[in-house]
Each structure stands twice: as structure tokens, then as C-alpha cells.
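Support case: S-adenosylmethionine complex. Customer-provided input:
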Amino acid sequence: MRLVLVPTPIGNLEDITLRALRALREAEVVACEDTRRTGLLLRHYGIPTPTLRLDQHTLGRAKELLAPYAHVAYATDAGTPGISDPGAELVRMALEWGWRVEALPGPTALIPALVASGLPTHRFTFEGFLPKGGKERQERLWALAREGRTAVLYESPHRLRKTLEDLREVYGPRHPVAVARELSKVHEEVFRGSLEEALAHFGEPRGEFVLVLGPKEAPLPEGQGLAQALRAQGLRGKALFRALLERGVPRNEAYRLSLASSETMEEE
Ligand code: SAM
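Agent response - structure generated as follows:
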């Protein structure tokens, strides 16, 4: 049993390798998120392999759906299966079933965005989509600001402004960002500037976006240092505890640090 993950173009039909085309041709079936979309690609290259829908809604039945086949190619809507799409879950399942899993190299949105950003590429972190809201989102944002690495994020057009606003809050308005829009499509654009400028530029965002944030020059300190900085702002006890939690410090550490701060306060 063999599963071949086939990267497909993120906008320009020419961005597909010869090996990917052969893999699509040689498989018994091409499982894909959207049979219409992948069907267009197959037709464009004259590949007659049948398609089978396998997206996040049908993934639960993957074993049963794939049972008739011994050689399956998997393609997602765009880019490399397994990067912020159902591919990762399918790989996990296929390995569990004892299948041989092969991943072909090819197009993905994060690498062209990172490289075109002009920001440091030697160390970076890929964050995919941030959690949509709540504590998890706050924790992730503050954890990012403690990173000394370039960060790459995916975002949908209707959430772009909210995410830029939240990042401005955490990183500061002048922090450098590159916003890559519609990569390898007709309206491709890479905006480079500060978070503030990006917000002014993208009034009504349309298209697909990758955000690349420059590394924080002085990353926010870990627990102890953060607690000191917050105490310097006058936060104590419960308020300090809550502020530490919001900034992604684990609960028990935040508790210890806020307790330590009230003890120190009493000593003062
Ligand atoms: N598997 C894909 C990959 O390898 O990049 C990512 C799939 S994820 C569901 C879709 C997200 O990728 C979009 O919301 C956008 O953030 C990013 N993306 C995909 N194509 C893009 C493009 N042509 N230009 C900019 N961003 C793109």
C-alpha cells in the first residue's frame, strides 16, 4: 500500500514538477480535497487518473474510501499536502495502517513568501493559521513575540486586518512585516513595511495571504524577566498572574511568579 503526496500549483499551473505529473498519472486514484479543482489540473495535463474526494469532512472514512486501492496519490487544493491542510492527518493515518508514505518536493506558499520578504531566512518558524480567538490566540501571539526568529503565518482575507492589529499590539507598530498576496498569480504583490503601514495599505484585503514577521530584536523575556517587567509597570498579585497567563506563561509558573512578587512586595 502506497500513498504519494503530490504538491500542486498555488496559482500558476506551470508550477508542477515532471515527477508530480508522473505520480498523478501512475496512481490508481487521485484522492483530493476538491475533485473539481484537481480535475481541472489533471485535464490540463491530459492525465486520465480518476479522482476521489478526501477532505476534512470525509477524512474520518478514509480507510474505507481508500480500501479498494493499493496506490494512491493525494493532492490538496494548492501547495504541499500536509502544510495547514488535511494532508497531515492523512499521513498520520496512513502510517498507522502500515502504508508506505512518500512526499514529493514542490510548491508551497510559505517558502516564496519568506524568501521574497527580504527578512532573515536563516532561522524561521512556521505558524500556519493562528487560533481564531480566545486564550489560545493570545498565548500564541505572545509566544511568537518571545521568538528571536522570523515568523511565517497564513491568513484568510477577512481575518487579515484583525491579525495585523493583534500583531501590532504585541510586536509594536513599527515592527517589520512582509505581506505576500496572491503569490504566483496575476495580481501577485509583496508588501514590505511596518505593521502600521501594512494596515494602512490593506484596507479591504482580497486574495490569499502569507504574513512574514521580522524577528523581534529584543525578544520578550521568559517568565522571570517578564514578571519583573510587568511589576515595573505596577502589576501585582492577581493582575500580574492574569497578565502572565495572557502572555503565554504556563499557569503554575505564572502563579509562582505572582506569588513571589507579592512576597517581595511585603518584604519591601
Ligand atoms: N498546503 C498549502 C501550502 O503548501 O502552502 C497551504 C494550504 S492552506 C489551506 C491555504 C493558505 O495558504 C491560504 O489561506 C494562504 O494563507 C496560503 N496560500 C495558498 N496559496 C497562496 C498564494 N497563491 N498566495 C498567498 N498565499 C497563499
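The longest strand covers residues 124-129.

Case will auto-close in a few days if no follow-up is received.
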